[in-house]
TrEMBL record:
NCBIfam families: ant_ant_sig, spore_II_AA. It comes from Paenibacillus silvestris. Belongs to the anti-sigma-factor antagonist family. This is Anti-sigma F factor antagonist. In the phosphorylated form it could act as an anti-anti-sigma factor that counteracts SpoIIAB and thus releases sigma f from inhibition. Keywords: Phosphoprotein, Sporulation. GO terms for molecular function: anti-sigma factor antagonist activity; antisigma factor binding.
Length: 117
């Protein structure tokens, strides 16, 4: 299965929705498209919605960690939401939740950033 990426730009937050599998086959494309969207839209905050992400490996963790660094270097915050149980477990095992904030859904993620779309 391939990966689909959807972007929605708010006032100061970019919502990125991933659908499919984020693995070593798709990681470079996701990284490039997210980097470009973050830079182009002058994004301060990033919300990563993983509701339809069916699989992720360590390459995907690398992509997420890299975007976290990109956003925090700009003084922004990153929130992950709608995480499936399998991806949640990978985040737990990797210690990612010690770094990245998690919320149940996009609305809560926006509220946690105190940003309105």
């Amino acid at each position: 299965m391939s990966l689909q990426i959807e972007f929605e730009q708010g006032r100061r937050a970019l919502i990125v929705r991933l659908k499919g599998e984020l693995d070593h086959h798709t990681a470079d494309v996701v990284k490039a498209r997210m980097e470009e969207a973050i830079a182009k839209e002058h994004t301060l905050h990033l919300i990563l919605s993983l509701k339809d992400l069916t699989f992720m490996d360590s390459s995907g963790l690398g992509v997420i960690l890299g975007r976290y660094k990109q956003i925090t270097n700009k003084g922004g915050k990153m929130v992950v939401c709608d995480v499936s149980p399998a991806v949640y477990r990978l985040f737990e095992l990797s210690g990612m939740f010690k770094i990245v904030s998690i919320q149940d859904n996009e609305r809560n993620a926006m509220s946690s950033l105190e940003v309105a779309l």
